[in-house]
Amino acid sequence: MTGTTPIRVMVVDDHPMWRDAVARDLSESGFEVVATAGDGDQAVRRAKAAAPGVLVLDLNLPGKPGVQVCKEVVAADPSVRVLVLSASGEHADVLEAVKSGATGYLLKSASTEELRDAVRRTADGDPVFTPGLAGLVLGEYRRLASEPAAPAGAGGGEEQKAPRLTERETEVLRLVAKGLSYKQIAERLVISHRTVQNHVQNTLGKLQLHNRVELVRYAIERGLDDE
């Protein structure tokens, strides 16, 4: 684990044996499992009380579906990052989860080591997707960005008020829009992983966005991924 404070994790799944196994694996790997839940309503209540840094969330839950849990938890505390861990690789499920505020999407077929790495990266704000799904999400962002925007004239003032990003922040944002991970961006620009994180956090603050998923869409809407 990096740093001295363990990452606070909550595990939500309606299958007790699977939920307990995931919680145990993460706990043994140095994460602090602060809560677990077996249904949607319980998940929302316990997430608000336990304040996890990362919510590992199944989509198929009784009482309240996972996407609704994601929406409510992120709305209550935008600093919570949600990693969906699902048996479904259906494109509609992936896109719905991301639109609900999930930072990443991992299939349950992933190995324990892949899950550990995904939780660490999710805590850092990196969007994590099972191979093949990242391109799907980026493609959906491009589709949304190509749809008719707000009425003409509505964007003029917004553009004028757009915060000024430094040259390096813009460079990092462009690579974020291309789907590169923090590690890949750091290697490309020959800077540290922490410096990339700092640039992303500064950019999020300037643009008043909550997470890297929103940042990717912002960049794609402005065509930065094509430059």
- Integer average pLDDT: 84
Total E-strand runs? 5
Look at the structure and name the CATH superfamily of the largest domain. Answer: Response regulator
What is the radius of gyration? 18 Å
State the separation between the terminal residues, measured CA to CA.
36 Å
Q: Number of helical runs?
A: 11
User: Structural class of the helices, strands and pairings?
Assistant: alpha/beta
What's the architecture of the largest domain in CATH terms?
3-Layer(aba) Sandwich
Strand order of the largest sheet: 2-1-3-4-5
Q: Which regions have little confidence, pLDDT < 50, spanning 5+ residues?
A: 149-160
What is the total domain count? 2
CATH level 1 name of the largest domain: Alpha Beta
Most strands sheet: 5 strands, parallel
The CATH topology of the largest domain: Rossmann fold
What gross morphology would you assign? globular
Q: Roughly what percent helix?
A: 40-55%
The H-and-E topology, N to C, reads as EHEHEHEHEHHHHHHH
The proportion of strand residues reads: 5-15%
